[in-house]
Amino acid sequence: MAKSEKELKIAIMGAKGYPYVYGGYDTLIKELGERLVEKGVHVRVYNHRALFDTRPRYVNGIECIYTPAIESKSFTQLSHTLISMVHACFSDVDVIFVVNSGNGPFGLIARIFGKPTAINVDGLEWLRPKWKGIGSKYFYWASRMATKFYDQIINDSEEMRRVYLEHFGKDSEVIAYGANPRETVDPKHIERWNLESRGYYLIVGRLVPDNNADLIIEGFLTSSSQKKLVVVGDVPFSDPWANRLKSLSDPRLLFTGYVTDPNELAALYSHCYAYFHGHEFGGTNPAMLKALGYGCAILALDTPFNQEMLQNGKHGWYFEKKTESVKGTIENAEKDPDTLDHLRQTAQAGLTQKYNWDFVTKRYLEVFEKLAKK
């Protein structure tokens, strides 16, 4: 392993930790952190202490610091990053990398200490239905603060770059998330749900309003399809909106809850007739990348973000935010199996270089090295 004369030290914070993988940020930290270590970078990840029963100092060459938090639905993540930021500022790290725009105000602490910083601000958090009133106002304000206090803003799509320029007058580096393409997985992994290859549509994501599972389910149930609709995902707390969806009774509807086995999840993607993507307020979405990587025919909500990811219809079809549009898309998909088969065969071609984890790591390292020289 070739190392520079002075080892570059990067602190990463704002997600649940390493090697904990639950969402997009956790995946980014795992894929990026491991590759940076291979390049001779010292990587320190701040882990949410309550999530780790065992707490080794080093895992796969990554230094893990286990910091506490105020355990509450609203303040866990923010308090964890605040404590981690203070710890990092008193250490010898060269650059602090933060994820999540909600952590925007904490860049002021690093600025006071003279620590170079970068933040990945992700999607339009202030528009998500789950953040109403004060929550929405906080995320808009925090995103604005991120543009003032951090040395480098990172967005994961050109559309999000445009949004930050328009709202906050701040340009950003665009570095997408990466993907890990796989060949078709053995269908035996979907047998536990009595599913057949190409016999079902698939939704993957948290059961929250901004992913529009309710719209897709309603459109599906009003269609004439004889296939099933499989909904993978849940919420980690009791929620009336999610509970209402899960209480729907129809023999064509299957809620699996969380699927943690990677081969089962890969098989669910690989063998679906089509993957429905209703995510509305993000940039580069990890679930969509998985769908491309597993060779899915993709039916996506028509948003600027999804248009960018699917190259304006080259790698998927779009539906409008209307029940009738979902219904019509399903019926057209079942009338045209040849086109859907073509989408499956060409899906992985949609994973251009910008979605390659090695390329993503190269881009991040360039940013970190530039910041460290300041």
TrEMBL record:
Pfam families: DUF1972 (PF09314), Glycos_transf_1 (PF00534). The keyword Transferase applies. InterPro entries: DUF1972, Glyco_trans_1. One of its GO terms (biological process) is lipopolysaccharide biosynthetic process. Residues 193-348 form the Glycosyl transferase family domain. Keywords: Transferase. Residues 10-179 form the DUF1972 domain. PANTHER family: GLYCOSYLTRANSFERASE WBBK-RELATED. This is Glycosyl transferase. It comes from Algoriphagus sanaruensis.
